[in-house]
Fold this protein.
Amino acid sequence: MSQPPAPPILLASTSPQRTAILHQLGIPHEVVAPDYVEHDPPEADAVELVQDHAQGKARSRAAEAGDRPVLGVDTAVVLDGRIYGKPANETDAERMLEALSGRTHVVVSGLCLITRAWEVLDADVTRVTFRPLTPRDLATYLASREWEGRAGGYAIQGLGAGLVRRIDGDYLNVVGLPAALLVRLLAERFPGTYGVG
């Protein structure tokens, strides 16, 4: 007797990267924009902040989910305890990239998974080391406009890969979704349902 198809996860995010990762993992999902406003004080604790945002996004759509699990995710770039969000403009992006140049920062993601019966809140951290960036490197990357809308001012899945010397941890977490963490949670909570566990 075949198992009924898994109900699609409701992804409370309009991020194309997160959708692409769920497609890559073969996890059925539907996208809905979260009804949640983020506030990113630079002095906040990064793990608490991304977990709060992930939880806020997921909870904002939980009432309409029915039997479907709701997934909320938030990601931040952190260097020396300071959170680097999405750059406001090109000057802001340049400032961020100069700070990250030749150094190791962390990418922190909060993940919240909600059903009618339970809620799980967790986080994952990946260490990313940039190579030293020359003025030409910076000018070329800034001209690409890829930094727009990207935490920390770069996209590792695009031209930003050329800024990176090494990563330690989940690569997909840097792209925007802590895939290893999500797969583990789905295997624990829905064994066999989403092609995992």
